[in-house]
Amino acid sequence: MTRGFYIGRFQPFHNGHRSMVEKIAEDVDELVLGIGSADDSHTVRNPFTAGERIMMITKSLVDSDLVTYAVPIEDLERNSVWVSHVQSMSPDFDVAYSNNPLVIQLFREAGIEIRQSPMFNREVLEGSEVRERMITGGDWESLVPEAVVEVVDETGGLERIQMVSDSDSNEN
Ligand SMILES: Nc1ncnc2c1ncn2[C@@H]1O[C@H](COP(=O)(O)OP(=O)(O)OP(=O)(O)O)[C@@H](O)[C@H]1O
Ligand SMILES: NC(=O)c1ccc[n+]([C@@H]2O[C@H](COP(=O)(O)O)[C@@H](O)[C@H]2O)c1
């Protein structure tokens, strides 16, 4: 039995993340999705709470055969102990997945196997592109699973990101 760990901020969970989960499913029996920066929300870069991101992930993967667990991981001031912090919050895992250079470095230094994945349609499947479209009224819905559209509707996420974006630009 192999269990993987996939870390990301998932702000929001988009079709690139879902494709990555499908790719990882070829390697592992179970997957932990670590919701990074779990303590952050209500900003343009991190608009959604950890709870909202858990809903997005759980509902998007409901039809998947893979056993998945979504675990919130708060940020720490000290990179040197971040991997231990991750391990203290997550079910045990055998291999980690990320394309983030700092994350890759920290897992390598801790002696944990880390695998990268190909980028899927990265020209548009990027969190910052989805958030920009949410703010400007573009087509963001086609970039995310249907379940994410429903969670954003249910939680008033669109009004929220537009409001925090407005207050950011008023401060600048
Ligand atoms: N289109 C994609 N295809 C494959 N992997 C992706 C894609 N987009 C993001 N990832 C990977 O998923 C992980 C989590 O990414 P993250 O939550 O930061 O999303 P992001 O799209 O890079 O968002 P942001 O623009 O907010 O930084 C990272 O390792 C990232 O490289
Ligand atoms: N010291 C720390 O708290 C620390 C170090 C490395 C990564 N992280 C987090 O891991 C996540 C990585 O996800 P992304 O690949 O989406 O950037 C982010 O939430 C990031 O803040 C935190």
UniProtKB/TrEMBL annotation:
Top-level taxon in the UniProt lineage: Archaea
Keyword Membrane: no
Entry annotated with the keyword Cytoplasm: yes
Chief place where the protein resides: cytoplasm
Subcellular location: Cytoplasm
GO molecular function, one term: ATP binding
Keywords: ATP-binding, Cytoplasm, NAD, Nucleotide-binding, Nucleotidyltransferase, Pyridine nucleotide biosynthesis, Transferase
Domain Cytidyltransferase-like: 5-133
GO CC annotation terms, alphabetical: cytoplasm
E.C. numbers: 2.7.7.1
Membrane-spanning ranges: none
Pathway: Cofactor biosynthesis; NAD(+) biosynthesis; NAD(+) from nicotinamide D-ribonucleotide: step 1/1
Reactions the enzyme catalyzes: beta-nicotinamide D-ribonucleotide + ATP + H(+) = diphosphate + NAD(+)
One record GO biological process: NAD+ biosynthetic process
PANTHER family per the UniProt record, alphabetical: BIFUNCTIONAL NMN ADENYLYLTRANSFERASE_NUDIX HYDROLASE, PHOSPHOPANTETHEINE ADENYLYLTRANSFERASE
Family in the record: Belongs to the archaeal NMN adenylyltransferase family.
This protein's name: Nicotinamide-nucleotide adenylyltransferase
